[in-house]
Structure to design on (635 residues):
């Protein structure tokens, strides 16, 4: 049994088949990249996994559990975190507050205890803060703790979104174009972090990415997608040499 | 400038980040404590209203400012709290019990309003909450066996621990002040806990909040319930302060006043509720001044500029007519809201922060410091 499995997954918007009978599996501890031209349906697959949209057909399994019907807010609790292609941060809050929201799935305190800020709430807050600090250290975000998101440059936001996802301590992390909008140096950092997430933090990574250097550097396997359909699956070099993939990218 | 040197996570959790806060709030508390012995009874009465409005303001801020759910129905929550008070008083229920009951019942109603409101956003939510307020107003007017309809209900003098606490006594002021302070402390506690952060997350991006494991529907309902409960408790005090309640006291105008409180005060901090309440409550004495003294002053000025006696008295009566015209208050509210939304979106508290920063940085303050930088536009795709 695979760690994560999408079976015959489809998402239709009216007549448009954004995702069309896609099946794939992710093994534990693997970095799997999804590539494909614009509008291929890559982000839609992520939106299906994180239950933003219900699939038209198909099922999704994680750790041998059918999660197709789970409510969206339970996906994080199961250990799946994500970042967004267009960055969805909490704009008018500080970096620290953003990262602490990432700890939400681990919070156990009751409303009445929070109103009184009882010692158990205080202790939990400190514990969450310690975990957040570990992520801040991992991603070198120390200078930004108190900054409001709305005043930060794009590259930093991108890293903060990754940090927020890491704060949930996910088992599987979905990264939607982690390098888009980053310069060469920042992309390089990103590739180190992604590999560390696998080797040091023991996470499984599912990633959508356009930058083929990054894809080649970190991925164990690659899936190529076009018009919602899987074109090819395999090692990075195999997939890039696949005639259908070449055709799709050249627009033939 | 002050640099805060943090050595412990506790430093970020504390309510008072540094000793400066303790001093300034301590002084404020001291001033509030001696207020009944210095201020006139009229100003004391206004101060009680400030406390009550500020309490409602805090409640509304939790829902609108921090969770991002607009409400023009808070007058109805206040009414439910007030009527619960008047109703339970008839059965000689002691104050602490009916005070909590007012909060609890209003909180439950708030949660019930929250459910249908889950699917609504922005202007539709505003319309839904207005409709809710109209329904409550109708019920209060029609359900005569409980509410005495349009005749209204008398509210007996508050008794606490066997002693009477008249509505214009210092003790009643301290009670209202105490409720306000407890509300603020409770809300601050909430805002530095997971629940408060979930509220803010929902306000800024529901999609992201959900994918971080926040049950958006549940927390919206919680926010409605908490906000309503606070307003209900304020309603209990409001009923006592007015000593008589009837449905026409809880109209849309009152809900708009509450929105003004937080809009003018500033929606990003609880300070806003207090500053906005002070502002709003002080409009009344200003209007009275406008009505009583302004016409005479203007006529005198006109006379000084050589207007004949007849013209001067003509001017005086015209200004008087204008100042006591119906709807002037509403018009002033409208103008104030517009001016603040256009020129001071961060409210009075934002203005205060700017002034403070100006003096801290003097002479290095840049006008652009508070300009919002639009670095990139958020996608609408996942909405
Ligand atoms: N909410 C929606 N309603 C209608 N159509 C949609 C919606 N979301 C996506 N689509 C369409 O589905 C298709 C796949 O979109 P998707 O965002 O998954 O592409 P992508 O592979 O992520 O592309 P990109 O590389 O540009 O991010 C596109 O044609 C898009 O226009
Ligand atoms: Mg995409």
């Amino acid at each position: 049994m695979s760690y994560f499995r999408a079976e015959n997954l489809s998402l239709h918007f009216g007549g448009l088949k954004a995702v069309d009978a896609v099946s794939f599996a992710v093994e534990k501890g693997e970095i799997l990249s999804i590539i494909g031209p614009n509008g291929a349906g890559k982000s839609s697959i992520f939106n299906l996994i994180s239950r933003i949209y219900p699939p038209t057909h198909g099922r999704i399994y994680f750790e041998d559990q059918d999660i197709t019907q789970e409510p969206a807010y339970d996906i994080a609790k199961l250990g799946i975190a994500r970042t967004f292609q267009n960055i969805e941060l909490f704009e008018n809050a500080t970096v620290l507050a953003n990262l602490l929201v990432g700890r939400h799935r681990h919070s156990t305190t009751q409303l009445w205890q929070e109103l009184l800020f009882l010692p158990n709430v205080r202790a939990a807050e400190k514990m969450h803060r310690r975990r957040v600090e570990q992520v801040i250290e991992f991603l070198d975000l120390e200078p930004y703790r108190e900054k409001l998101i709305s005043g930060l440059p794009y590259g930093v936001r991108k890293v903060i979104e990754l940090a927020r996802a890491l704060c949930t301590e996910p088992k599987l992390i979905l990264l939607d174009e982690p390098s888009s909008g980053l310069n060469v140096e920042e992309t390089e950092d990103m590739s180190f972090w992604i590999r560390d997430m696998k080797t040091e933090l023991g996470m499984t990574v599912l990633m959508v990415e356009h930058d083929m250097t990054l894809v080649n550097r970190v991925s164990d396997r690659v899936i190529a997608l076009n018009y919602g359909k899987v074109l090819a699956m395999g090692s990075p070099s195999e997939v890039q040499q696949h005639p259908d993939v070449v055709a799709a990218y050249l627009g033939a | 400038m002050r640099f805060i040197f943090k050595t412990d996570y506790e430093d970020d959790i504390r309510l008072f980040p540094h000793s400066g806060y303790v001093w300034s709030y301590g002084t404020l508390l001291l001033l509030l404590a001696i207020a009944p012995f210095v201020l006139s009874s009229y100003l004391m009465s206004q101060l009680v209203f400030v406390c009550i409005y500020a309490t409602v303001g805090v409640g509304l801020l939790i829902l609108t400012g921090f969770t991002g759910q607009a409400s023009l129905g808070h007058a109805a929550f206040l009414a439910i709290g007030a009527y619960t008070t008047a109703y339970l008083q008839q059965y000689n229920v002691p104050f602490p019990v009916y005070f909590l009951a007012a909060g609890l019942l209003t909180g439950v109603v708030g949660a019930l309003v929250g459910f249908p409101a889950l699917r609504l956003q922005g202007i539709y939510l505003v319309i839904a909450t207005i409709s809710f307020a109209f329904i409550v107003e109708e019920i209060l007017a029609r359900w005569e066996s409980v509410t005495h309809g349009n005749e209204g209900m008398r509210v007996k003098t508050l008794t606490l621990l066997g002693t009477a606490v008249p509505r214009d006594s210092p003790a009643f002021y301290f009670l209202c002040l105490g409720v306000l302070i407890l509300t603020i402390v409770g809300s601050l506690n909430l805002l530095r806990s997971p629940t408060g952060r979930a509220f803010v997350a929902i306000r800024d991006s529901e999609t992201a909040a959900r994918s971080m494991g926040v049950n958006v529907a549940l927390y919206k309902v919680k926010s409605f319930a908490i906000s309503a409960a606070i307003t209900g408790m304020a309603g209990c005090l409001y009923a006592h302060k007015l000593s008589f309640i009837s449905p026409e006291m809880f109209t849309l105008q009152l809900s708009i006043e509450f929105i003004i409180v937080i809009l003018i005060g500033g929606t990003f901090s609880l300070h806003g509720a207090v500053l906005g309440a002070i502002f709003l409550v002080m409009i009344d004495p200003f209007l009275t001044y406008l009505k009583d003294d302004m016409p005479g002053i203007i006529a005198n000025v006109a006379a000084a500029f050589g207007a004949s006696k007849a013209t001067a008295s003509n001017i005086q009566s015209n200004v008087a007519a204008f100042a006591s015209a119906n709807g002037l208050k509403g018009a002033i509210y409208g103008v104030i809201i517009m001016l603040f939304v256009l020129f001071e979106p961060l409210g009075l508290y934002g203005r205060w922060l700017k002034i403070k920063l100006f003096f801290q940085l003097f002479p290095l303050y840049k006008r652009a410091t508070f300009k919002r930088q639009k670095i990139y536009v958020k996608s609408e795709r996942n909405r």
